[in-house]
Specification:
The chain has a domain of about 350 residues: FAD/NAD(P)-binding domain. It is an alpha+beta fold. The relative contact order is 0.19. About 25% of the residues lie in helices and about 20% in strands. The two termini are about 25 Å apart. The chain is globular and about 70 Å long. The structure holds flavin-N7 protonated-adenine dinucleotide (FAE). Its EC number is 1.1.3.6, 5.3.3.1.
Length: about 525
């Protein structure tokens, strides 16, 4: 018993992937933030949990001795089932930089809908594997617009602090920031923001800041300082693989099945739900189809994954009584990217830490919060680069397309115009102050704005509309949504702390009342 934690964790791992014909009390679809919170708290409450994840485990080094590929040298590991990379910055000096890669169940999915590319993490840990780790709690005055039916006192007193503690959120040491080479780009960003009268704020992150200091000093293997981002971080980032997931495995009650993709959930004749699962190989072929029954199913496949599944299941008659709100209220968190060309005296540094640590806050006045982002190319570019989160009011809808047997998303590229206008409230002014111009070579030839993508999909099974106020899916007792799909399109800052905190709130209520 004294050795209970680790020994049980080993047993759970040894149990192997989920078997066809199994009956489980709880099945969780997806291993990102929402799924990890649900599995941990259910397991701690004594419930056995099966987690099913379409991506890989990401626990085994490749031929280069590293688990994850570097941003400057993408390979098969970098993209989900593509034969060519789909880099968010597609061009440099106008030249396309995408390259051929072998088709593989890689870590970053660039999922293409008609009007937008939605980037998502694939693997055990979900988006935490690929993201920048920026861990931002929204300003309290903005919370009412983010989740209007959630008690803000409870969130700010209990669930945001709980999420921040579990995720290991910390802040860059300001004195170190002021001197270190790898944040020269952010210091240029700060100076220029302040010269134009905008507040520059430090942004918390889950990166291990002590480790980054050692990276910069050259005493440990480099990760952020070697430009690792988008395709995984080999060392310093506290992804879910270092926080919630070891903790839930240590309960001995959770089994994770990687390379398993849920394709159907429908009521089972004897009660509970029948879940159909495709087991995949690393080129994405289905090797086995499994059928299991679960008393309860938590949809934690991310905003897009959960919305696609629920939209398909409702339209195809598997779960016809789901709310008509399913698929609605989807937003891109107002993401838009832009680069600026600096004068030679504002060099941004050849070595740039891939973890952003600061932003320009013009939310109240202009509807934009801009991360000062790295451009870790390994050479001096004299470029400043930004990912803005804006108050874009547009919301799209998922719908089932019977001709293609796929789920479509109604977002249109032109719907990014409000985001561009809001971002311009910051960057037009900075350009005027600095006598600088926008870069037009990063997203194509003569294209200023990165308006074709989002990193922050939100909504599609919106809280208190498609579900009750705690994520119980209307129409089907025992089915829950517990991920970014619950949030109606915008969080005013980077979303994963809010997704985690909301999941902590909801699972606490569900355990207390449903189990
Ligand atoms: P998520 O983490 O996406 O997990 C869903 C999981 O379900 C994934 O592992 C999927 O592979 C899996 N899945 C999907 N469909 C199925 C299926 N049918 N069967 C089995 N498994 C399935 O969901 N947010 C921040 O707050 N700060 C940042 O700095 C930041 N940077 C980002 C950078 C990039 C490049 C990207 C792509 C995202 C970034 N985000 C950031 C967004 C953040 O990662 C995202 O909001 C969360 O990961 C969403 O959490 P969920 O739990 O909703």
């Amino acid at each position: 018993m004294a050795l209970g934690g680790p020994a049980l964790a080993a047993t759970a791992k040894a149990a192997g992937p989920i078997q066809s014909g199994t009956h489980v009390p709880v099945l969780v679809i997806g291993t990102g933030y929402g799924g990890s919170v649900a599995a941990l708290r259910l397991a701690q409450a004594g419930v056995d949990v099966q987690m099913v994840e379409m991506g890989m485990a990401w626990d085994t080094p490749g031929a280069d001795g590293k688990i994850f590929a570097n941003t400057t040298n993408p390979d098969a590991r970098s993209y989900w089932l593509r034969t060519k990379t789909k880099q968010p910055l597609s061009n440099f000096l106008g030249f396309p930089i995408d390259r051929d890669i072998p088709r593989y169940t890689g870590i970053l999915d660039a999922e293409e809908f008609a009007g937008i590319i939605v980037y998502q993490g694939r693997g055990v840990g979900g988006g935490s594997l690929v993201n920048g780790g920026m861990a931002v709690t929204p300003k309290r005055e903005n919370f009412g617009a983010i989740l209007p039916t959630v008690n803000a006192d409870e969130m700010y007193n209990t669930y945001y602090p709980r999420a921040n503690a579990e995720l290991g959120v910390g802040l860059v040491d300001p004195a170190w920031f002021d001197t270190v080479d790898c944040y020269q780009y952010a210091r240029v960003g700060r100076k220029q923001a302040q010269r134009s009268g905008f507040p520059f704020v430090f942004v918390p992150d889950v990166y291990d800041w002590d480790y980054m200091k050692q990276e910069a000093a050259g005493t440990v293997p480099k990760s952020a300082v070697a430009g690792e981002i988008l395709y995984g971080n080999n060392y310093g980032k506290k992804s879910l693989q270092k926080t919630y997931i070891p903790k839930l495995m240590a309960t001995g009650r959770v089994t994770i099945s990687p390379l398993h993709k849920v394709t159907s959930v429908s009521p089972a004749s004897g009660g509970g739900y029948t879940v159909l699962i495709d087991q995949l190989n690393t080129t994405g072929d289905v090797t086995t189809t499994k059928s299991v029954t679960a008393d309860r199913v938590f949809f934690a496949a991310g905003s897009v994954g959960t919305s696609k599944l629920l939209t398909m299941l409702k339209a195809t008659g598997k779960l016809p009584n789901l709310s008509n709100e399913i698929g609605k209220g989807w937003g891109d968190n107002g993401n838009v990217m832009v680069g600026r060309a600096n004068w030679w005296w504002d060099a941004t540094g050849a070595v740039q830490a891939s973890i952003p640590c600061g932003g320009i806050d013009n939310w109240a006045a202009g509807g934009a919060f801009a991360e000062v982002a790295p451009l870790p190319t390994g050479i001096e570019t004299y470029a400043s680069f930004y990912l803005s989160i804006t108050k874009n009011p547009n919301r799209a809808e998922f719908s089932w397309n019977p001709t293609t047997s796929k789920v479509d998303l109604s977002w249109q590229t032109a719907w990014k115009q409000p985001s561009i206008d809001m971002a311009k409230t910051i960057f037009d002014k900075i350009n005027a102050t600095e006598a600088t111009i926008y870069r037009t070579d990063l997203f194509g030839v003569n294209k200023t704005w990165g308006d074709h993508l989002t990193y922050h999909p939100l909504g599609g099974a919106v809280l208190n509309r498609a579900t009750d106020n705690y994520g119980r899916l209307l129409g089907y007792p025992g089915l829950y949504a517990i991920d970014g799909s619950l949030i109606p399109g915008n969080t005013s800052v980077n979303p994963f702390v809010t997704i985690t905190a909301l999941a902590e709130r909801n699972i606490e209520k569900i355990i207390a009342t449903d189990l």
